[in-house]
Amino acid sequence: MAITDYFIRYLQRRDTLSAEDLSRLRALRTENETFAPGEVIVPVDRIAQRSCMMLRGLSARSHQLVGRPEERVITALHVPGDFVDLHGFVLAGLEHSVVAVGPVEVEFVSHDQLIDITENFPHLTRLLWMATLIDAAVHRQWLVAAASLRSSAHLAHLLCEIYTRLNAVGAAGDHRFSLPLLQRELADILGYSPIHVNRAVRDLRDRGMITWSGADVKILDWTGLSGLARFDATYLDMEQMSR
Amino acid sequence: MAITDYFIRYLQRRDTLSAEDLSRLRALRTENETFAPGEVIVPVDRIAQRSCMMLRGLSARSHQLVGRPEERVITALHVPGDFVDLHGFVLAGLEHSVVAVGPVEVEFVSHDQLIDITENFPHLTRLLWMATLIDAAVHRQWLVAAASLRSSAHLAHLLCEIYTRLNAVGAAGDHRFSLPLLQRELADILGYSPIHVNRAVRDLRDRGMITWSGADVKILDWTGLSGLARFDATYLDMEQMSR
DNA sequence: AAGAAAGACTAACATTCATTAATCGCAGGC
DNA sequence: GCCTGCGATTAATGAATGTTAGTCTTTCTT
Questions:
Q1: CA-to-C1' span, B205 to D2 (A)
Q2: Bridge partners of A107?
Q3: Which residue's CA is nearest to the C1' of nucleotide C7?
Q4: Contact criterion met (CB < 8 Å) for A73 and B141
Q5: What is the pLDDT of residue A59?
Q6: Looking at chain A, which residues constitute the CATH 2.60.120.10 domain(s)?
Q7: Which residues is A235 bridged to in the sheet?
Q8: Smallest Cβ distance to A148: which of B65, B130, B134?
Q9: Does pLDDT of B3 surpass 70?
Q10: How far in angstroms lies nucleotide D6's C1' from the CA of residue B188?
Q11: Inter-chain contact A140–B76, Cβ cutoff 8 Å?
């Protein structure tokens, strides 16, 4: 997989890239880096000079709670092809950090190249914009899930979403995928205690919907799992459209 | 207040607008419309040809739950100056509707004018992008609040945020504001039952932190309320910065 | 092979929140 | 001035989730 190809595939799934758009993307100079589980990929609060695309593994946006330094909330997960902190290009510093979940490989793109794109490639700019808007749509869906689903269904929704996103970039198939999340980290995502997450995992297992051993997840009953979660993938905006 | 002036103030609070940017914004042709409480301003699912800016009142992004038509979740509130469904310009249809909360006045801007801006005004384009990214930051903060705060503190966080945003555009002051939300609608926002919302409101009242009668909210103890909510307004990204 | 550490898992109990069913209070219609 | 409807409020009960305190595997270390 050559540089930025995952992200190009991400875009091409949703719009047609012109020859100029494509060659501009292919001409991006990037810095490749790897991170061990738990390492900070993008620190909180600092105004960065670059943003990173996921190449391999899983990363998370982690919010430290004020006054409770040992607690955190995870507000997003990122799979290969995601332009993780693209929003850091426009905002005045991020209010969260990005950390590696499991081993991670990313590519950094300098912001001066993004400035060039926004100055000279309006269609490509709208597609970058779109990528951040899809992230926002995922945020909204997490809010809907948090407000309307109980523990097992809430967990089921997360599994359906992650599988759909991994599958969309070819990083999962046959209803199997690798999810190197600890139950403690799942708790930070879902807003439950680790013990309650354990109950939810056991419930989905007892219903025969999934197996989960180590980092290996297999969805045995997609219909049942997605029905329980009332999962509808349209919010991931994976339709072709001219933008 | 002339056309789009609220939104111009919203942008100027965060960056410097060049004379060209300003005149382009002032040249926007808009359609002014008013809505009664509960009316749909932007319907779900349809690919729109225009997006709307809030001029007066309060509106909400409302997600209908699949299979439960009487239930909904509100994932965002919008105050004057907000470019409510700007994301509809780039996404392939919205997965939520926008409804009026109390009486509302908005201005619609056609998407062909937004195309023109993205083709010819790169700095202004980045500012429009920024507006949608601030919405996303608010989504994330709501996720953090939902995961880490119990009922009273969660409600307190919402009140702190709305007051801060209203105050930033001059639509509130002296720790007073109008919030025409029913407790049932608050429940759709916070993910609680209406009864539990009532308990939270009573709790904040009993602590002497707020009064709330009809649509009139007064924060009596800002320090206490924002401390309870662990509210930190930096996520609203209200700092001046060149983007 | 023994020990240690980390994560998964379980049980018992406490707290938070949902549900159901009423009552209360206010505003509008007649 | 009374009725009516809607929303706010309260109480009682049960379900969902948190907390504390462990045990059980597995894996790594020595």
A1: 34
A2: A32, A53
A3: A182
A4: no
A5: 96
A6: 5-143
A7: none
A8: B65
A9: no
A10: 18
A11: yes
CATH for the stretch B151-236? 1.10.10.10
CATH topology assigned to domain A149-236:
Arc Repressor Mutant, subunit A (1.10.10)
Q: What is the pLDDT of residue A133?
A: 97
| Beta-carbon count within 10 A of B18 CB | 12
Residue intervals of chain A classified under CATH 1.10.10.10 are 149-236
**What tens digit of pLDDT does each residue of B45-84 get?**
888 899 999 999 999 999 999 888 889 999 999 999 999 9
As assigned by CATH, the class of the B5-143 domain is mainly beta
Shortest Cα distance from A41 to chain B (angstroms)? 19
What's the N-to-C CA distance of chain A in angstroms? 27
Where in the sequence of chain B do the CATH 1.10.10.10 domains occur? 151-236
What does the alpha-carbon distance between residue B223 and residue B44 come to, in Å, rounded to a whole number? Answer: 39
Protein residues closer than 7 Å by CB to strand C: A 182-184, 194-195, 198-199, 201-202; B 150-151, 154, 191-193, 195-196
Contact list, A237 vs chain B (CB under 8 Å): 91-92
State how far Cα A60 lies from the chain centre: 7
Distance of CA B158 to the CA centre of its chain: 11
Asked whether residue B195 carries a pLDDT value surpassing 90, the answer given is: yes
- Structure tokens given for B212: 């709330």
Q: Please list every residue in chain A whose beta carbon sits closer than 8 Å to the beta carbon of residue B197.
A: none
pLDDT of residue A3: 58
Q: Which residue has the tokens 């909400």?
A: B60
- pLDDT (tens digit per residue) in A168-203: 988 888 999 999 999 999 999 999 999 999 999 999
Rg for chain B, CA atoms, rounded? 18
Nearest C-alpha of chain A: how many angstroms from B208? 23
Amino acid at B27: A
